Amino acid sequence: METYCEHCGEPGEHPACRQALRLEPPRFCARCRRRMVVQVTPRGWTARCVEHGTLTSA
After folding, report:
1. What 3-state class would DSSP assign to 39?
2. I need a labelling partner for 53 at 20 to 30 A (CA). Which of 19, 26, 33, 35 fits?
């Protein structure tokens, strides 16, 4: 199964995108490449894929 970059949505992993994800939530689902619905709050963020559910910042 191919995985996609959570930042740019392209196949594979990219060092520049990994750096960007340290500062912001993922934009795309790594499993299906769908655009994530992102909500940013003062305490962190949540990103939700309609098919695979929710990710929450640590």
Report:
1. strand
2. 19
Record the pTM.
0.76
DSSP H or E segment with residue 38: strand 37-41
Cα pseudo-dihedral 1, 52, 40, 6, rounded to 10: 10
pLDDT score of 44 more than 90: no
pLDDT digits (tens, 9 = 90+) for 3-40: 999 999 999 989 999 999 888 899 999 999 999 999 98
Q: Which of 14, 48, 46 is closest to 34 using CA atoms? A: 48
Token readout for 34 is 């769908």
> What is the rounded CA–CA span in Å between residue 50 and residue 58?
21
Residues comprising the chain, all counted: 58
